[in-house]
Amino acid sequence: MAKLYPREIFLAAKDAAWNRKKDGFKSAAGKLATIETTELRPGYSISRMLKGGWQLSGDHGTVETSRAIADMISYVDLGITAFDCADIYTGVEEMIGAFRQELADLRGERALKAIKVHTKYVPDRASLKTLVFKDVEAVIDRSLTRLKQERLDLVQFHWWDFDVPGYLETMGHLVRLREAGKIDLIGVTNFDATRLEELCKVTDIASAQVQYSLLDRRASGAFSEVARANNVGLLSYGTLAGGFLTDTWLGRPDPGFEFENRSLVKYRLIIDEFGGWDLFQALLRAMRGIANANDTDIATVSLWSNLDSEVVKAAIVGARYADRLARALRAFELTPTNKERQALGNVLAERQGPFGDVYELERDISGRHGRIMKYNLNSGDGGKAQDLTAGGEP
After folding, report:
1. Could you tell me the sign of the dihedral formed by the alpha carbons of 296, 302, 307, 313, in that order?
2. How many CA atoms does the CB half-sphere of 85 hold within 13 Å?
3. Which of 22, 69, 252, 266 falls between 20 and 30 A from 129, CA-CA?
4. How far is 367 from 362, CA to CA, in rounded Å?
5. 180-194: average pLDDT
6. Cβ distance 53 to 89 under 8 Å?
7. Phi-psi region of 122 (alpha: psi -120 to 50; beta: other; left: phi over 0)
8. Integer distance in angstroms from the first to the last C-alpha of the chain?
9. Under a CB-based contact definition with an 8 Å cutoff, are residues 71 and 322 in contact?
10. How many CB atoms are closer than 10 A to CB 372?
11. In 5-131, where does DSSP find H-type helix?
12. Which of these, 280, 277, 269, lies nearest to 373 by C-alpha position?
C-alpha cells in the first residue's frame, strides 16, 4: 500500500467530500443539465454561464474564503469553466489565484488549462488624466501575480469619464501588453455604443461586459448592433439584479433604499427606472408562472431569459457559494410555452425604462445612480461611496 503524505491525505479527503456533495446536487435537481459553451475567439471557449466575483469582495457581507474556494471547484466539476473578477474587487483575484492552485492539485494541469479567468482593468477616476504605460503595466503585472498566471486570459477595460481624453491611448497600452504576451484577449466593460465602435477600429475587442436583465435592456438596440458587426461577444452581469429577481422578493412590500450593501441599492434604483415596485411585482408574478410550470424558481427563469436572448453570448451569475448552483443550471433546459412567454412580454411592454445608452445613468456622478459608486478603489478608496452631489471630481 502506497504511503500518503499529509498534503495528499488532505486533498484526497477534500475530493471525497466533493463527490458526496455532487451526489447531493444530483438528488436535489435530478439529472444535471449540460452546460452550453461558446467561443469568444477561435480556440477560446467558455461556458455560457460564468461565476461572478463581485459578491466575494467587500460590501456584501462576510465571506468564508476556504468555502468560497472549494465551491469554485464545485463550479468546475459541474461544467462552469469561466470566472469573472476585477482588479478592484478586494481580495478576489487572490482568492481565484488560490483556487487555481488548488484545482491543479486536485484535478491536474489539464483541468486548470480549461479554466478561463476574466479580470478587469479599472483605473481610478482620479488618475485618468495622468495615466501612462507604466501605470497600466503595473496593474496588469499585479493581476498576473494575484491570479498566479503567466498570461491573463481576458482583460476588460473600463473608463469612468468620457470627458477625460485618454481611453484610446490606454487601450493602446493594453494592446502593447497583449503583444508582449501578458494578455490573451482584450474586452471592455460599461462602454457605450459610440466608444465601442471607436475602440473596435483601434484593435480587436473580444467582449463587452454589460448590465442586462429583464429589468434592464439598455444593451439591446444600437449597442448590440455595433457588437454584432464587430464580433464582440456580450457578457451580461446583473442577471439576478443583485438578488431582486428571485423568489425572495415576490409579494413583499417595497423596502425602500436602506440596505447593507451597494448591490441592492444599485438594483433597487433600476427597479424605479423600470417602472416602480408594483410593476416589478407584476414581473415577478409572470416569472413565477413560468417557474411553476417548469418546477423551478424565479432566479432560474431570470437566468434563462438572458441565455435565451440573441444579444447575450454568456451570462455572469454572482454568488458567493455553490449551494444553489444545480438549480441554476436548469436554465439551460427551460422551454417556456408561447403563452408563458407572452405573459412575460405583456409585463415588459409596460416598462418605463431604463432607457439611454449602456451605463449612461451610472456615469452621471451627480445623479443618484452615480453617487453610490466607488471611483478610486485601486488607490484604496474603499471605505464609502463618493458624495458627488455637487458633481465635482471625486
Report:
1. negative
2. 26
3. 266
4. 8
5. 98
6. yes
7. beta
8. 64
9. yes
10. 18
11. 6-29, 65-77, 92-107, 109-113
12. 269
pLDDT (0 to 100) of residue 125: 94
Percentages (nearest 5) of helix, strand, coil residues in the chain:
45, 15, 40
Listed in sequence order, the residues at least 6 apart from 133 whose beta carbon sits closer than 8 Å to its beta carbon are 173, 176
Residues 324-342 pLDDT 10s: 778 888 999 999 999 999 9
382 SS3 class: coil
Would you give the DSSP letter of residue 369? Answer: T
For 251, phi and psi rounded to 5 degrees?
Answer: 80, 5
Q: Quickly tell me which residue has 482593468 as its cell.
A: 121
Q: 264 near 242, Cβ under 8 Å?
A: yes
* pLDDT tens digits, 232-258: 999 999 999 999 999 999 999 999 988
For the chain, the residue count is 394
For 24-68, the pLDDT digits (tens) are 444 344 566 789 999 999 999 999 999 988 777 766 557 778 888
- Domains, the chain: 35-321+332-379 (3.20.20.100)
HSE-CB of 86 using CA atoms within 13 angstroms = 24
Q: Are 192 and 328 in contact (CB under 8 A)?
A: no
Half-sphere exposure of 270 (CA within 13 A, CB side): 27
Q: Is 11:106 a contact under the CB 8 Å cutoff? A: yes
Beta bridge partners of 83: 51, 117
Going by pLDDT thresholds of 50, 70 and 90, the confidence category of residue 13 is very low
Distance (Å, rounded) from C-alpha 385 to C-alpha 369? 11
3-state secondary structure (DSSP) of residue 39:
strand
Predicted structure pTM score: 0.88
The closest of 31, 64, 136, 49 to 315, measured between CA atoms, is 49
Return the ∠ at Cα 148 (arms to 143 and 154), rounded to 5°.
Answer: 50
Look at residue 378 in the predicted model and tell me its pLDDT: 82
198: which residues sit within 8 A by CB, 6+ positions away? 168
Looking at residue 216, what DSSP letter applies? B
